[in-house]
Amino acid sequence: MLWTHAAIYMIAYFGLFTGLFFLLTYLGSSRAEREDPEAKHFPFVSIVINMWNEEKVIDKSLRALLDLDYPKDRYEIIVVDDGSTDRTYQKAKAYCRSLPRVRVFRKENGGPASAKNYGIDKARGEIIATLDADSFVSRDALKKMVGYFGDKDVWAVTAALNVHSPKGFLQHLQWAEYIMSIFLRKVFSLADAIHVIPGPFSLFRKKFFEKHGKFAEGNITEDTEIAMRVQSHGYKIKNSISANVYTVIPKSFGALMKQRIRWYYGFIHNSLKYKHLFNPFVRRDNLAALILPGALVSVVLSFLAVFIFIYENYNVLRDNITRMMVTNFDIISSILNVKWTYVRELIINYATSPLIALAIIGGAFTLLLLLLGKRESKESRRMLLALVAFFLTYWIFYASWWIGTFIYRGVLRKKIKWGPRYY
Asked: 318 near 308, Cβ under 8 Å?
């Protein structure tokens, strides 16, 4: 039908436009703009780790921090146990007995933002680093990130958030998504349009918390809220594309769906809270003119793409069922009785359709962005399964996560909250 073709063209052109913008923003920047500035001095850094029932990963997380390539007398590690019911506190406490730069505190359960705020109150550093306990920092990450604070307008710095040991189809799909996000976050940094500061190892000037308040307790995506608050005050957020941090990701579809419902509803909630960031007449920047509106448009178009897919395949399925009914559901006869002239015409139509050309160009753009993210983050692991999973199914998963969010929160009116970890 005409409307479906028009919608498909609209989706294709939007994807090509945004992809071209991302690519040109990256390639149009100088090498100096893309590289991490060298730190002229090493500020004292307080690394705050919020933990809840993390006894399985705490050793690996702390060992990675203790091995950082950063002057040992210029950083401290503050562990905040947020009311764990396992041996998290006891295992963390063992470190501070022999290492004075590790301090461990325990509080009643209040959620990630509450635990981070508790640690910030105890921090002595001029730079605050936040870290989720199920994330592991590469040795050179901190040194690569602190140089950005040489610019007085930079008040937060994000890392390259990667996936720890992906296994199976679902985790490889997420891995490709994370690699794409590594590249996009750097593009957003170059465009001064970062709107999420991930929990796994991000840096802040402590003065920001003193002037504008700490993390919003009760906000289910405090990392999005704090980023939008930083942006609303006119401060810069930068990104190091090669400061790798590896995080544990969901293994099951159910755990992944719960995570994405929380992320996506949190984005909508905070977008409404900071709706002035969407006004291009007020801000006159890339964040308001393209990045945030583009994020919302992509959601609408993903719904449209799924609807068209179902609609078109319903017609195909209906025709096939009708054909099989004629042959009394003799499938082999149905196949043999197909007029191959129809098949040939179908192949020719697809081969000569402009949509195929657009699909090929769009796929090439996506692959290029993924490969740039892989190269610039110095990812050396093989990603064939991840790329196949991403190209074949990501658009379906992306739409299903948003549909699940609207059903869970908008229709069923269920409360969204933090859940247990994924291992």
From this structure: no
> Which element (helix H / strand E) includes 59?
helix 58-66
If one counts every other C-beta atom within 10 angstroms of the C-beta of residue 52, the result is 22
Q: What sign does the CA torsion over 82, 86, 88, 90 have?
A: positive
Q: What is the CA radius of gyration of the chain?
A: 24
pTM: 0.89
**For residue 132, which of 112, 147, 108, 146 has the smallest C-alpha distance?**
112
Buried b (16+ CB within 10 A) or exposed e, 135-167: bbbbebbbbbbbbbbeeeebbbbbbbbbbbebe
Confidence of residue 172 (pLDDT cuts 50, 70, 90): very high
Annotate 82-92 with b (16+ C-beta within 10 A) or e (fewer): bbbeeebbebb
Q: Residue 357, SS3? A: helix
Beta pairing partners, 48: 78, 130
Band of residue 423 on the pLDDT scale cut at 50, 70, 90: very low
**How far is the first Cα of the chain from the last one, in angstroms, to the nearest whole number?**
46
pLDDT in tens, 200-223: 999 999 999 999 999 999 899 999
- In whole angstroms, give the CA distance from residue 252 to residue 81: 26
Which contiguous run of DSSP H or E holds residue 80? strand 75-82
